[in-house]
Amino acid sequence: MKLLAVLMLLAAPATAQPLPAPNLPQYDLLLRGGHVIDARNHVDAAMDVAIKDGRIARVAAGLKPADAIKTIDVRGLIVTPGLIDLHVHVYNGTGERGSYAGDLSVPPDGFTFRNGVTTVVDAGSSGWRNFPDFKDRIIDRSKTRVLAMLNIVGAGMRGGGYEQNTADMDGEATAGMAARYPGVIVGIKTAHFNGPEWTPVEQAVIAGTKANLPVMVDFGADRPTRPLYDLLTEKLRPGDIYTHMYSGLRQEQDPLTLGPSRGFIEGRARGIWFDTGTGGGSFKWSLAVPMIGQGFRPDSLSTDLHVDSMNGATKDILNVASKLMALGLRLSEVVADMTAHPAREIRRDDLGNLSVGAIADVAVLKVEKGHFGFTDMVNTRVDGTQKLVAELTIRRGRLVYDLDGLSALPWNGPQGDTHLDSYWTVFPRPVPRPGDTVLH
Ligand SMILES: [Zn+2]
Predict the structure, then answer these.
(1) Tally of structural domains, the chain
(2) Is the pLDDT of residue 99 over 70?
């Protein structure tokens, strides 16, 4: 048998994969001359970023184009870790109508790379019963890194009949499913509950405690039997996440000061994270303006992306970031809120940074100057002078989005060494490299 195996190996046909060239440069891709913002590593300066084998190889000034297969000039642009959208709905494709495990969700790759996003967190579209279907249908087939928070409802986010059913809120079963997919299931979600009970929150905290994961809360209907103050000061644990922070639907705002309510202030003091989740009906200027004016800023920016929010006020995560810049947040702050901060909230500190050795997910952004209008859930407007646009997106070291063809050569000029293209781009169709696997 042993001899046969050796003979078979010797007789194996040559694959289409080109052999590595003997004098391959040190780096596959060099982003040269950009302004790097990497909150995790306290970098906010002009730097070059070098990538090799799908990972960050070096971040420094003065790196040489001769050392890279491909160099892209990104002068005047902002280079950041690939953005993380902490709250989206992407369990699309089941055919179920009126359901976030169906037609209300969007396919992730259609909305991510064009916004510099390389990681999304599906916030509770699936529960423990249908997570394996979600994983097979979406997570394993997407180029975007798709992570998930499990809905505390076993059936997931499929409308009232399911989501109000307290009998299907099982913290133990939810924790059991989370334990089967560490690093992919990164949280527990409760949402849309209208009843007077604490059941969904309590079961979500049981699941989160057992699985050692954060709980994200969309607090549903405002009920006097379960006040927001108690949620943030007693029921949730430090490290849990309150999304839809500027919705105004559930006592987020103090009616007298128009700043954050007492629950918000005390919740933040004990370590609750606050997330935008602007969505279709969860962001109002009448909250965001005074609350940010009084210093109550988000810990993370997220869209709550779905079929309505993407065409409504939210649009995309760069629009959310531009809105907050219009209210005075600095570029470095909104970048941190889309990279290192959400990574910390889901305890995936390996993501959202440009540390040497990190998977090379990178966004190159442009700050457009001009006159722009930004809207909210009640269609009122704030004007701004800056808007973020994604120019390039890099996933696992390879270019997956290039708005203005910064990496491309004029069509009628020399095309250079195309046989090494697959080391740094997916355009056009590259030859896959050996050992390529989906990393989550
Ligand atoms: Zn949502």
Answers:
(1) 1
(2) yes
38 inside domain? no
d(CA 320, CA 283): 10
Listed residue (325, 303, 312) closest to 383, CA to CA: 325
Ligand 1 centroid – CA 277 distance (Å): 7
Any domain includes 131: yes
- d(CA 94, ligand 1 centre) in Å: 18
Ligand 1 centre to CA of 65 (Å) is 44
Ligand 1 geometric centre to CA of 63 (Å) = 42
CB of 334 closer than 8 Å to CB of 321: yes
Give a yes or no: residue 115 inside a domain.
Answer: yes
At 420, list the tokens: 């090494």
**Average pLDDT of the residues in 374-382:** 97
> Percentage of residues in the chain with pLDDT exceeding 70?
92
Q: How high is the mean pLDDT of the chain?
A: 93
CB 102 within 8 A of CB 95: yes
Ligand 1 centroid to 123 CA: how many Å? 6
CA 279 to ligand 1 center in whole angstroms: 7
Per-residue pLDDT band at 413 (split at 50, 70, 90): confident
> Rounded to the nearest whole angstrom, what is the distance from the C-alpha of residue 87 to the centroid of ligand 1?
6
pLDDT of residue 415: 76
Tell me which residue range forms the domain holding 176. Answer: 82-352
* Protein residues placing their CB within 5 Å of the ion ligand 1: 123, 304
Yes or no: say if 91 and 97 are a contact pair by the CB < 8 Å rule. no
Q: Is residue 137 part of a domain?
A: yes
Question: From the CA of 226, how far away is ligand 1's center (Å)?
Answer: 20
CB 326 within 8 A of CB 386: yes
What CATH number did the domain enclosing 107 receive? Answer: 3.20.20.140
